[in-house]
Structures are given as structure tokens and as C-alpha cells.
Amino acid sequence: MADPLSLVASAIAIIQGGEKLRKLVRKAQQLNKVPVEVELLLQEISEARTSFTSLQSTVIAAAQGARPINFEALRSLLHQYASLLDSMELLVDKYLLKSPKQDAEGGDERAGMGRSVVRLGWVRKKTKVHEMQDKLRNVRFLIVDTTYRRERKLRVSGSRGSYYRIQAKRVTTGQDRGNPDNSRGNDKGESSESSSWAYTIDFHVRPMQVCLPQHMDTAVNDMEESRWHSSHAISWIPFQHKDCDVSSCKRRSQPMISGAFHLPHWIASRAIILTLINGPSISVSLTVAHIVPPDSDIFRYIQTGNCSRLQTLLLKGQASPADMIESLYGTLDALLFALNCNQYEICQLLLSWGADPMLKTAPS
Questions:
Q1: Disordered: where is this region (predicted)?
Q2: What's the pLDDT at 70?
Q3: 3-state SS record for 48-74
């Protein structure tokens, strides 16, 4: 009769052996996907090079424009972006692609530039590649965010306890087309960053209709902002009609106040937006926005102006015009981000998919 302990030990050994075999199979399957992943990496590097050229031109144009920007900070970010790109290309060339001599002796699946993939090199450097990709996307986002951030002049007029009242003067120009409300006379309250993990509430005013770009003249808007160092922050703006003062413009602005309630990230990446429209009669709408990472595909394709890939994402339901990102200075939806990047074909595509309806009545 067999010893029960021996049977148990044998069963455990068989189970452990099966688990090791499954791990080996999974690793083999991952190795089979290596050429595709390296090809996608090469494609991303190529897009990043194109994006760098576009960002460089945008920064130079912004520095020569009327709107002040922090050019030194942007130049440093551009240098960091270029260095990361060079490092990624060096890593790919050294560890992920075989040399032409190795290919002549017998290569693997082709990945790019007529060279084949080193599978074990990808296994060894995969974590490093992902770290560099994250850094590259973060720097790219910071460049865009810093370029289109309007300069503030803040004067703290009083301080008592945990309460601050800030008088802000903000200068906008016709070049700042990322804000649909920068026609003359339309006030806007900027969102305030929360100092707590719980949530933020911000209110701002945007017109329901947008004037022609040439009507977006330079304007100076005064704003009173009250900030509480707790779990929320509120900005307030007079809720009233102010029309475009260009004589040829017949459109009346319909301001609206939007309050965004940002849920904690560990609960859901969502923002509940309550909108109060001051039209012929006051109306209220409630929407739920999806907060996505700044390096998500939809915003990457918007930045690079890749209409075909963005269209594919929308068709597959992998992205939506309602997707939003949280920048260091506020929340941007897809259409507003596209306007900031001067990607007008992308704007037309997003509008055709039902993006921000207040732009649909804008004169063409």
C-alpha cells in the first residue's frame, strides 16, 4: 500500500510542475509578440519625432506672439524631450534590433529599417523602455500645457486663517484659441486645484456660441477667486449676458456656469459636471465626463493631428469626444485640447462625433 504522504507529495510536485509549465508557455507567448511590440515602439518613436518638430515650431511661434510664455522653461523641456528621444533610439538600436551582420547570418521577423528583433533584448529592456515612454509622454504633455497656459498676475489682497482671496488679472489674445470664450467681454473663472485627495469643485463661464476667430481680440478679464484649503475650491464670476462687440457679429453670447465634481481616482476616473445656462430661460444639464491619462491614445493622436487613427479609435468605441484630461492648470476636453494644438481638422472630426455642442453654431 502506498504511503499517503508520498501520494500528497507527488500531487504537490505535479501541481507545481504544471504551474511552472504554464509560466513557460506564457513567456513563450510573450516572446512571440515581441516583434509586434518593437514595431509599435518604432512607430511611436517616429511619431514622437514628428511631434517634436511640431512642438518646436509652436513654441517658437508662441514666443514671437503677443501672449507671454515662459520660454526658458519650454526650451529646457524641449531639450529634455530631444534627449529622451535620442536615448530611446540608442536603446532600440543597441539592444532590440540585430545588426545587419547578424541579419545576414539568419534573422527573425522584421521590425523596421530592414533589421530583425532581438527577443531576449526586449525581455531584458522592456521595463526600461516603458519608463522612458512614460517620461517622454509626460514631457510632451508639459510642453503643450506650458505653451498654452496663459500668464497670470496674482495679487494676494488678504489672508486670514485658511482663507485666501486672490484678485487675478488675466490677459487673453486672439492666438489663445483653446478657450472658446475668449471673445471680448466674456468672463471666465478658472478652476482651482484641490489641496485634498477627496474632490474638487470648480465653476467657470463659457459662451454657448463662438465668434469668428478674428473677433477674438485681446481682452483683459478680472476675476475674483476664493480658495479654501479643504476638500474643495470654488471660483465665482458674474452670471450675465455680454455680447461680442464686433459690429459684424450678430450672435448673442449665452454664458453658462459649469461645476465639476471630481471623484477620487481610487473610486472612479469620472467627473460629474453640472451646467447652468443663462439663456432666454435658465436651464440645467448634468453630464458625467471620463477622465483619461494625458498620454492616452486619443490625446496623443489629437496632438500629432492623426485623423485616421483617431477616427479608428472612435469607431471602435475605444475613445469618446467627451474624454477629458486633468492638466496641472485645469481640466481639458478633447475639443479644447485640439484647439490648443491648432489641429483644426481634428476639431471638425470631433464635432462630427458630437463634441462640445456650443461650437456647432459657430459661423464657418
A1: 167-194
A2: 61
A3: HHHHHHHHHHHHHHHHHCCCCCCHHHH
Task: State whether residue 306 is helix, strand or coil.
Answer: coil
Residue 205 neighbours by CB under 8 Å, 6+ apart: 181, 186, 187, 188, 189, 237, 239, 255, 256, 257
Q: Which of 226, 148, 237 is nearest to 185 (CA)?
A: 237
| Alpha carbon distances (Å) from 210 to 73, 213, 215 | 32, 8, 9
Select from 149, 204, 152 the least CA-distant residue to 176: 149
- In the sheet with 323-327, reading across from the earlier edge strand, the strands are 201-207, 255-262, 270-278, 282-291, 323-327, 330-333
Q: Which three cell numbers stand for residue 244?
A: 461680442
Q: What SS3 state is found at 81?
A: helix
pLDDT per position as a tens digit, 265-276: 556 567 776 777
Task: Please state whether beta strands 219-228 and 270-278 pair in parallel, antiparallel, or not at all (unpaired).
Answer: unpaired
Phi and psi at residue 154, to the nearest 5°: -110, 140
Q: What's 97's DSSP letter?
A: B
Amino acid 273 reads: I
For residue 337, the model assigns a pLDDT of 79
Buried b (16+ CB within 10 A) or exposed e, 332-352: bbbbbbbbbbbbeebbebbbe
As a whole number of angstroms, the distance between CA 133 and CA 287 comes to 33
pTM, entire model: 0.36
Q: Are 189 and 80 in contact (CB under 8 A)?
A: no
Which cell goes with 290?
471620463
